[in-house]
């Protein structure tokens, strides 16, 4: 098995810092399981393993900054013993011909071997039997970390089970912990058998060590990164800009009607409808959905719409709403809420940060009517959405008032031109006039 | 049971704190526009409504959103909504 | 409209409800064992025979299957009968009529036939009537589609549930807990009919929801008082309608308190309490701060000896203990 190494999480990432390990030696992990949280100057991201197996040794401490490609942990195939595993037992007796489960067979010869071992290695506790090692491996327990309570300090099955035991958490407490950002592993439960209850989570939340004071300025490294990216974009990408005004009357009325029958949790906001329209339009016009790399346009493998999200503390991230063109509007709405929530609590996945094929920046809630954004290289397009305003409008040849929104598109003139941009905006407009098809 | 203004204020503040943990609610004027002052975008506001609706045990429709513009109007809204179930 | 309240009892309120129904609607009549000359086994219909005559207050032979069947027939034919089965224990002899006829005929006839019968039954234990006469079978009946079940637990509900039940085109079963008949209460002389679709929060609270119905309500309210003196504020929900259950009120309450205790005089296995627990798990699992507690009768045929019967039934002390367990356990 190959080592687990620091992955590259973006075009401009050279190194990262492990913030926290999510696994420990001996843990069994499946492909795709989160291994650690890494800080990349832009955001805290969970990194996953590409291999299923057992975590071996952790090679990098939290707080250490390492280059992309540096081994972070060794990985073992399932069944391999971690390097810290205890000495193997002496020769096991040959199993009898009878069809009895092997563990019971092998257990028999251990006691006679123990006294001899104990004589030789004077103070060392007797090694755990193979069946016990198998049991420990199954539970993901590292035997090196277990204190034995049996004779001569031998590790017993009960010791292994106790080490594997995770405290129980009530469903409400678990949900509360997630909402308040409390790490359940650090909470002491005061319910029966140490069950963690809601008030334990609240107590832990209040007792948290002082979080660094929240400043309105982004940390220097975040701003420096953004500055570098924006400068590069303006330096390298010849931007063109097109804009249009979209009559949102149909969308807004349709949403109002749909939302009447929906619980609050399921309500859809106009921003979601706009994102959906952008995604569908991007699918129809693939020349705007991809990357400019080494002088050529490389189309994205699917439409992953980057959503510019302001993270509290002044920083900005634009993770992808993946496969946005395949998500029905109610599903997209929930995915959007989930994405924004995780962006703000620093729990984005690597795929979400690396994958956007074009980006949308919606500053409508900030009050500006129009925004001409800076394209995020290597993407070739950025859509800007302004505030939804009621304005006079020509309706059926007479003066009326309609909710309008100003849509703009910044385009990489190497990849496309204003004509394409204009068609793109017209497509989005058209999609928004038929919200039931979104 | 009709909610008192204090109960309403405390309930509203609780939901806001989930979304903006460092919000200064003690210094918030009762007629200040919540969305603008606390910089709540449309998703933040939706989460606020969702939590408020669940915690207060009252139904909140989109048509009610204008009634949730300020702390003052929230208190009046919650009092009216909880009185109806007496 | 008079505003002076009248002191009355649950029993008298039910009698008044029947009197009003028969005055307002000539299709309404009462039939059952000993309801006429004897004035009703529990004196609920005392005086009604003298007032309304033998055509409208009909003593029936001692055969539940026969007279419940007759009541169903009368309802099909356009009358609005109130069939009184002396106790839920004897309703077992009319199960076929209730479950296979009353509950089904509207569906089986594609709506051509409707069965607007109201069946009133005394239910529950606590009066030393022993194993065969102490059942609480509300949970059993709650399993059957095609009927509605009401459990008035207050004087107001005893007075107000009958009229809307009679107006319902489908069969309605009303369960009156035997210990509630002498319960005192005050009512307006022209008390209005009450809603028969919602549960009621009898005592608002925030630390734990105590859900109950019928004869257990007074015990639950007393337990709530006791808990409040120790700093636990329970919310008491009176189910009132046992089928269909008012999920919105039930789940809404537990969503707010995060803890639930269900007090149900039936046996816990396959009970109404079990059904409500499942609904809570289905609808607000992620709001529960601890397992749902059930306080039900001990799983034995109801004993005759007073101290054993008391030990077998939910009591204030066991309700308080269950609430404490889920709040602090």
How would you sum up this structure, described in words?
The complex is a heterotrimer of chains A (438), B (86) and C (329). Chain A is α+β, with helices and mostly antiparallel strands and 438 residues long. Chain A has 4 domains: 73 residues, Beta Barrel (OB fold (Dihydrolipoamide Acetyltransferase, E2P)), CATH 2.40.50.100; 63 residues, Irregular (Dihydrolipoamide Transferase); 36 residues, E3-binding domain (Dihydrolipoamide Transferase, Irregular); 218 residues, Chloramphenicol acetyltransferase-like domain (Chloramphenicol Acetyltransferase, 2-Layer Sandwich), CATH 3.30.559.10. Helix content of chain A is 31%, strand content 23%. Chain A starts with a strand and ends in a 6-residue tail after the last helix. With 86 residues, chain B is mainly alpha-helical. Chain B has a single domain, classed as Non-ribosomal Peptide Synthetase Peptidyl Carrier Protein, Chain A (Orthogonal Bundle), CATH 1.10.1200. Helix content of chain B is 55%, strand content 0%. The termini of chain B are close together. Chain C has 329 residues and is of the alpha/beta class. Chain C folds into 2 domains: 182 residues, Thiamin diphosphate (ThDP)-binding fold, Pyr/PP domains (Rossmann fold, 3-Layer(aba) Sandwich); 129 residues, 3-Layer(aba) Sandwich (Rossmann fold), CATH 3.40.50.920. In chain C, helix 3 runs parallel beside helix 5 and helix 10 crosses helix 14. Chain C has a 7-stranded mixed beta sheet, with helices on both faces. The termini of chain C are far apart. At the A-B interface, helix 8 and helix 10 of A face helix 3 of B.
Please sum up the structure shown.
Helix content of chain A is 31%, strand content 23%.
């Amino acid at each position: 098995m190959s080592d687990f190494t620091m992955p590259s999480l973006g075009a401009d990432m050279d190194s990262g810092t492990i913030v926290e390990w999510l696994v420990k030696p001996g843990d069994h992990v499946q492909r795709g399981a989160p291994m650690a949280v890494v800080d990349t100057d832009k955001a805290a991201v969970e990194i996953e393993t590409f291999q299923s197996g057992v975590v071996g040794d952790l090679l990098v401490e939290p707080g250490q900054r390492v280059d992309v490609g540096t081994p972070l942990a060794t990985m073992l195939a399932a069944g391999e013993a971690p390097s810290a595993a205890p000495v193997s037992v002496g020769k096991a007796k040959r199993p009898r011909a009878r069809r009895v489960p092997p563990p019971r067979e092998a257990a028999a010869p251990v006691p006679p071997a123990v006294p001899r071992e104990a004589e030789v290695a004077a103070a060392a506790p007797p090694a755990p039997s193979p069946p016990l090692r198998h049991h420990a491996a199954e539970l993901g327990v590292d035997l090196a970390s277990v204190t034995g309570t049996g004779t001569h300090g031998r590790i017993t099955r009960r010791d292994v089970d106790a080490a594997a035991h995770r405290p129980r958490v009530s469903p409400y407490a678990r949900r509360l912990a997630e909402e308040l950002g409390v790490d359940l592993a650090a909470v002491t439960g005061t319910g029966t058998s140490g069950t963690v209850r809601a008030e334990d989570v609240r107590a832990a939340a209040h007792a948290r060590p002082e979080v660094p004071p929240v400043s309105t300025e982004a940390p220097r490294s975040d701003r420096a990164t953004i500055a570098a990216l924006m400068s590069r974009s303006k330096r390298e990408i010849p931007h063109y800009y097109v804009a249009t005004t979209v009559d949102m009357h149909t969308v807004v009325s349709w949403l109002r009607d749909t939302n009447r029958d929906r619980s609050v949790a399921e309500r859809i906001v106009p921003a979601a409808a706009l994102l959906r329209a952008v995604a569908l339009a991007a699918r129809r016009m693939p020349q705007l959905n991809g990357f400019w790399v080494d002088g050529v346009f490389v189309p994205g493998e699917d439409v992953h719409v980057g959503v510019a999200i302001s993270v509290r503390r002044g920083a900005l991230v634009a993770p992808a709403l993946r496969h946005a063109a395949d998500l029905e509007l109610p599903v997209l709405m929930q995915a959007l809420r989930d994405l924004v929530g995780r962006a703000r609590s620093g729990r984005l996945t690597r795929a979400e940060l690396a994958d956007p094929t074009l980006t949308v920046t919606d500053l409508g809630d900030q009050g500006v009517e129009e925004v001409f954004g800076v394209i995020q290289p290597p993407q070739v397009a950025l859509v800007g959405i302004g505030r939804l305003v009621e304005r006079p409008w020509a309706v059926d040849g007479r003066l009326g008032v309609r909710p309008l929104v100003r849509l703009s598109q910044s385009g990489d003139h190497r990849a496309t031109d204003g004509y394409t941009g204009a068609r793109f905006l017209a497509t989005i407009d058209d999609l928004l006039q038929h919200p039931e098809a979104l | 049971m009709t909610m008192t203004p204090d109960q309403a204020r405390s309930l509203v503040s609780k939901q806001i704190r989930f979304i903006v943990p460092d919000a200064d609610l003690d210094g918030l004027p009762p007629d200040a526009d919540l969305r603008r002052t606390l910089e709540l975008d449309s998703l933040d506001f939706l989460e606020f409504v969702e939590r408020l609706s669940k915690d207060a045990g009252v139904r909140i429709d989109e048509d009610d959103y204008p009634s949730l513009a300020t702390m003052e109007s929230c208190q009046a809204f919650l009092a009216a909504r909880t009185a109806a179930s007496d | 409209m008079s505003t002076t309240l009248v002191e009355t009892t649950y029993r008298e309120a039910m009698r008044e409800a029947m009197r009003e129904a028969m005055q307002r609607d000539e299709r309404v009549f009462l039939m059952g064992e000993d309801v006429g000359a004897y004035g009703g086994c529990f004196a609920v219909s005392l005086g009604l025979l003298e007032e309304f005559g033998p055509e409208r207050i009909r003593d029936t032979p001692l055969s539940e299957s026969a007279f419940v069947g007759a009541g169903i027939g009368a309802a099909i034919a356009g009358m609005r009968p109130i069939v009184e089965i002396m106790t839920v224990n004897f309703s077992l002899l009319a199960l076929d009529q209730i479950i296979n006829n009353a509950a089904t005929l509207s569906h089986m006839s594609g709506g051509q036939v409707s069965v607007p019968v109201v069946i009133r039954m005394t239910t529950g234990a606590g009066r030393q009537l022993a194993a065969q006469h102490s059942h609480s079978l509300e949970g059993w009946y709650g399993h059957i589609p095609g009927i509605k079940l009401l459990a008035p637990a207050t004087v107001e509900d005893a007075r107000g549930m009958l009229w809307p039940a009679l107006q319902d085109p489908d069969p309605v079963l009303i369960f009156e807990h035997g210990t509630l008949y002498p319960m005192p209460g005050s009512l307006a002389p022209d008390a209005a009919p009450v809603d028969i679709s919602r549960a009621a929060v009898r005592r608002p609270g925030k630390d734990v929801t105590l859900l109950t119905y019928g004869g257990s309500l007074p015990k639950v309210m007393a337990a709530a008082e006791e808990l409040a003196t120790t700093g636990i504020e329970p919310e008491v929900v009176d189910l009132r309608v046992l089928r269909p259950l008012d999920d919105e009120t039930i789940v809404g309450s537990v969503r707010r308190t995060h803890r639930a205790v269900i007090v149900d005089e039936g046996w816990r296995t396959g009970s109404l309490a079990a059904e409500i627990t499942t609904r809570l798990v289905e609808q607000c699992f992620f709001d529960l701060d601890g397992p749902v507690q059930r306080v039900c009768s001990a799983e034995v045929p109801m004993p005759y000896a007073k101290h054993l019967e008391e030990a077998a039934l939910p009591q204030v002390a066991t309700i308080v203990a269950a609430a404490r367990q889920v709040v602090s356990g």
